[in-house]
Design brief:
Length: 402
């Protein structure tokens, strides 16, 4: 079944990679995951294949697994990392990215101290489609037993960029010039294909504590979006850019004015096609829950007015990809009074062109953070699906672009 469906999907995918997407064309894809699998992360490979990482219970604690979907179906799952000392969390999870030469970079989180939230970012490289992995490296240089997570791995020229939220100054463990006591920071480091990490850079000295980061290439510019935090507890979405070898100062994508004294655990998503950029996010500003989308036509230097794209009662946990016609495909979780609903929307700057609810959860637990990707002329959506009895699995849908 896996091989048959994959062959059909890929034969459709390689036919052409034009503009439109039929939301009714999404069909289930069988997955090579084990019992209790959760938290999928997706990454397109340069040759059109799709990589997926996830976490599942293992004989020794938990394991981060990886498999690749190609014309012949899924590869056998490979283990990226395994142990009782992995930090496993529904909102802060492993990921993978593919460098320009096909080298895979994967990250996971490793406990670094007795505190519940003392953990390090670990990154390893594989040059054989994940069958074997090089030694783990830690991109941050502080060596403090503090929180480091919510990582984005983004291909950058021949390298990869790692972006993460850093807690070295949160409890005063490593105060630095410009650090804000009690605040997380946004950090980044470049990772070369030989496994060497560049300087650990501070991009923003005060951010929201536990919202996902996201990144995209807009032409030659690398853009990073995240939930910021002001001294007045305004937690809107900000953007920084790597342009001409230098990082820009943080600035808001849009001033929602969401004042909230705690972290909402709800990061933004970004996608780009040339200079056209889409950013999707959740906000509760004015006590109104909303999923918003804004476009930029100049590689993120400025954004048009955001549009609300949800249909009421959104929970958020957005993701987005850009399609070849310049529209954005956005996913989010909502609530209909009895359970969670996973919705897809194809949108322009005027709002949703089409929307479809593609999955629901009435079993308790949560669908966590669904992931979107475009690879080989296909659009993919994967998420954690709670099952009766309290056991999770992962579901995936795919549709051809046309």
């Amino acid at each position: 079944m896996i091989r048959t469906l994959a062959c059909v999907l890929f034969s459709l995918a390689w036919a052409n990679m034009a503009a439109a997407l039929d939301l009714s064309a999404f069909q289930p894809v069988d997955l090579p995951v084990g019992p209790g699998a959760a938290d999928p992360a997706l990454a397109p490979l340069p040759d059109g294949r799709l990589a997926m990482t996830w976490t599942e219970p293992a004989p020794r604690g938990h394991a981060v697994r990886l498999a690749i979907l190609g014309p012949d179906g899924w590869s056998a799952p490979a283990t990226v990392a395994e142990g009782t000392d992995l930090f496993v969390n529904w909102a802060d999870f492993a990921s993978v990215a593919a460098l320009a030469d096909g080298t895979l970079a994967a990250h996971w989180l490793h406990r670094s101290g007795p505190s519940s939230y003392a953990y390090d970012v670990n990154i390893a490289l594989s040059r054989d489609d994940g069958r074997t992995w090089g030694p783990a490296l830690i991109p941050h240089n502080d060596a403090t037993a503090s929180q480091h997570g919510f990582v984005t791995l983004q291909p950058l020229e021949e390298d990869a960029l790692a972006v993460w939220l850093d807690g070295r100054a949160h409890d005063g463990a490593m105060p630095e010039e410009g650090a804000v006591p009690g605040a997380m920071q946004l950090h980044a480091a470049r990772l070369a294909p030989d496994g060497q990490a560049g300087p650990d850079l501070t991009l923003d000295p005060s951010t929201c504590s536990c919202c996902q980061t996201a990144a995209a290439m807009a032409g030659e510019d690398l853009l990073v979006v995240y939930r910021d935090r002001t001294a007045d507890e305004i937690r809107d979405i900000s953007i920084v850019a790597l342009r001409d070898g230098a990082w820009t100062a943080p600035r808001p994508v849009h001033r929602d004015g969401w004042e909230i004294s705690g972290c909402p655990v709800n990061g933004p998503a970004i996608a780009a096609l040339g200079p056209r950029v889409a950013v999707a996010w959740f906000t509760g500003a004015g006590d109104i829950a909303a999923v918003k989308l804004a476009f930029s036509e100049n590689a993120g230097r400025s954004f048009g007015p955001p549009v609300r794209i949800d249909h009421g009662q959104p929970v958020g946990r957005v993701d987005t990809v850009m399609l070849a016609d310049g529209t954005a495909l956005v996913s989010w979780i909502g609530w209909d009074g009895t359970g969670e609903v996973l919705t897809l929307c194809q949108a322009t700057g005027a709002g949703c062109m089409a929307a479809r609810s593609v999955a629901r959860n009435d079993a308790g637990g949560t669908m966590n953070f669904p992931a979107l990707a475009v690879a080989g002329g296909m659009a993919y959506l994967a998420w954690t699906q709670p099952l009766p009895g309290g056991i999770d699995t992962i579901r995936m849908l795919a549709a051809p672009l046309r």
